Amino acid sequence: MIITKLEKMQGSRWKVEVDGEYWNILDAEIIVQFHLKQGVSVEEETLEKALSAAEYRRARERALYLLDRKDYGSWEIERKLSQNVSPETARRVVERLQELGLINDEEYARKLARHYILQKKQGPRRAVLELRKRGIDASLAAEAVDQVEPEEDQLLELCRRKYARKLETDEKGREKVIAALMRLGHGYYDACGAVDTVLAELDEQDEE
User: Fold this and answer.
1) Residue 5 phi, psi dihedral angles, 5° rounding
2) Which residues does 17 contact at the CB level (< 8 Å), separation at least 6?
3) How far apart, in whole angstroms, are the C-alpha atoms of residue 3 and residue 16?
4) How many other CB atoms are found less than 10 A from the CB of residue 77?
5) What are phi and psi of 6, to 5 degrees?
6) Residue 189: helix, strand or coil by DSSP?
7) pLDDT band at 208, cuts 50/70/90?
8) Average pLDDT over residues 140-157
9) Cα 162 from chain centroid?
10) Cα 174 to chain center, whole Å?
11) Which of 51, 81, 90, 154 gives 150 a disulfide partner, CB atoms 3.0 to 4.6 angstroms apart?
12) Cα separations (Å) of 46 from 17, 33, 90, 179, 187?
């Protein structure tokens, strides 16, 4: 097999023709790595290795681009990469980025746990579920959530801020608010306690 033409394209990409026919487009890094030159004879195995290296490079650049914009866990990155490259290549890229410390599922799980509990005001059960949706291992998700200490009276403040009006105007507000808090992952008795406290506060306000 003969490389009959190397044509410079936009950026660092080159169009490669083999035996007079279009073969592929490779980055200059791959061209140099595999010593591909116009007029040179090349083995089919070498071309296959070049394609594999090009796929790996493309997946790596895609992963770095994604990570530069926001944090991801290994499962999320691998899933996104697998949309355009082979699962094996996606896994290799993820493993390498983990070795470099660019992907850290433990740190990512802790960050997500703080987000869902402290910002979204979710209970532990719901927070673990959200981490699992992001591909975090069950035990790691539970550990990360367990390490987050909710703010004092967080559930009570949530009930005051978001649900007080419903408790005040809806006859069945108590049951509806308790159900809403449970959907957020809070326990039944914790939800009942917060709702009943807010109801008592509203009654006191009405008496004044």
Assistant:
1) -160, 135
2) 3, 4, 5, 6, 7, 23
3) 7
4) 23
5) -120, 115
6) helix
7) low
8) 89
9) 28
10) 36
11) 154
12) 15, 11, 21, 62, 61
